[in-house]
Amino acid sequence: ADAILAMVRDPARSQSMGLAARRNAEQYSVSVLSNRLLDIYQNIIDSYHRKRPYT
Fold first, then answer.
1. Residue 32 contacts by C-beta under 8 Å, 6 or more apart in sequence?
2. What is the number of domains present in the chain?
């Protein structure tokens, strides 16, 4: 309860923490995570082709 009251009494801090939380959450959005996964797959494919070039 004290933490909630502290947030209510300090709107600037509350806003700052909210923005930080949003930035953190954006790192785990579907689009960000799917792009990371695609990068991983592409790196695996590229690595495979470097080790076994087609002739």
1. 26
2. 1
* HSE toward the beta carbon, residue 14, CA cutoff 13 A: 9
Q: pLDDT tens, 4-18?
A: 999 999 999 999 999
The span from the CA of 20 to the CA of 26, in Å, is 10
Give the residue numbers spanning the domain of 29: 2-51
pTM for this entry: 0.58
Q: Give Cα separations from 53 to 11, 29, 36, 40 (angstroms).
A: 60, 36, 25, 20
Q: Are 3 and 9 contacting, i.e. CB atoms less than 8 angstroms apart?
A: no
Q: Position 53: which residue type?
A: P
